[in-house]
Write a structure and sequence with these properties.
The protein has 13 helices and eight strands. The chain is elongated. Helix 4 packs antiparallel against helix 6.
């Protein structure tokens, strides 16, 4: 059967098949040469600050361009191939759909770099685009691109998109009931985006989680904990909880009570308080606005000094270093004043006369 098929092919058809194959091979080779020399030349020329968006647009188009060359080669080769007609409706539809997929692929890749476009627009119109909004908009743009492309492809094959949409309307109630959690999370994400209680890279704390925000999408927020694990929190949950944004601190509090022994004299106590206060005021790492060092109360086993101030830094490691420095300095001040730190204790006093009387009664017996 196969031999009969090949024997039935004329010499002219062999020539046309060879030309078709040659066109495809030429398209493949030309694609490699074009990408290697011409395309990368444009890429290097666009690699500057003024043409940053163009550079990203070219990078996003690199892989789709490789496929586009092959589509063009197949389309031209079909004009010479004896058993395929360029005017065939199915072939034309497949070529058009392939081109649509290539364009969608390019726009999809480009949408991940839309942050550059958003940042340039925000600079032009003086609008502060939050970092958490940019990935959200990027994902929204990708969904829109894919949805439009699918509708165009469906129409290319004469599928009634309007009827599909009407069918969604009939089944809308069932869909809403099945997807109510998804809708809740979507609106939770919108609340987070609009109210902006935090941004990507912020250190936040809620009743559910504490850590650094890494990403937010339509359904959930991704947070990296201090144990270096990733936790995914539904947006509906996070948007209904109180959130502490520690990254928004302008200063960081240090507060503690210093207890000294009861045998400390008034003069010693005043000297210690004054020296600690003066040290904190002269320390450049301490915020100067609020510094409290006061003899606060008489405790069971100590005279308590309240120490309350803020560090200029909010970075955890630097904050601990400042706190350690202050603690060492307080130890020096106490040592120089010959004042000891109190520890929980209880003194027992015995009436000496009553003790002797009790001994005499015991001896008379």
């Amino acid at each position: 059967m196969n031999w009969r098929f090949w024997e039935s092919i004329t010499y002219e058809e062999y020539i046309h098949m060879a030309i078709s194959l040659g066109i495809i091979l030429f398209a493949f080779l030309f694609r490699k040469l074009f990408i290697k020399y011409i395309f990368y030349l444009f890429l290097r020329l666009s690699n500057s600050g003024k043409t940053e968006f163009l550079n990203h647009a070219l990078k996003a188009f690199e892989q789709p361009l490789r496929v586009l060359f092959m589509i063009i080669g197949i389309y031209i080769a079909a004009g010479y191939f004896p058993y395929i007609s360029q005017e065939n409706s199915l072939f034309k539809s497949l070529i058009r759909v392939s081109v649509i997929i290539v364009i969608t692929w390019w726009l999809y890749n480009l949408s991940s770099k839309t942050s550059i476009l958003f940042m340039k627009i925000s600079k032009k119109i003086n609008i502060d685009v939050d970092q958490i909004l940019i990935p959200f908009l990027s994902k929204a743009v990708r969904v829109i691109i894919v949805a439009i492309s699918l509708s165009i492809i469906a129409q290319e094959f004469n599928y009634n998109v309007g009827g599909f949409v009407a069918g969604l309307g009939l089944g809308g109630l069932a869909f809403a009931l099945a997807a109510q959690e998804v809708i809740k999370n979507l609106f939770g994400g919108v609340v987070i985006i609009t109210e902006k209680p935090f941004s990507i890279g912020n250190w936040i704390q809620s009743p559910s989680i504490e850590g650094i925000v890494e990403d937010i999408n339509f359904r959930s927020t991704i947070i990296r904990t201090f144990e270096d694990s990733l936790v995914t929190i539904p947006n509906a949950t996070l948007s209904n909880e109180p959130i502490i944004n520690w990254s928004e601190m302008g200063k960081r509090r240090i507060s503690f009570t210093l207890g000294v022994e009861y045998n400390t004299t008034k003069k010693q106590l005043e000297m210690v308080i004054d020296q600690i206060r003066e040290y904190l005021k002269s320390n450049p790492d301490i915020h100067p606005d609020i510094i409290f060092v006061r003899f606060s109360e008489y405790n069971d086993s100590s005279l308590d000094i309240m120490v309350y101030f803020f560090t200029n830094t909010t970075i955890w490691e630097e904050y601990l270093a400042v706190k350690e420095q202050v603690n060492f300095k307080i130890m020096e001040i106490l040592d120089e004043a010959d004042v000891s730190v109190a520890y929980p204790s209880r003194s027992l006093y015995i009436d000496h006369e009553k003790h002797e009387l009790k001994n005499e009664i015991d001896e008379s017996k």
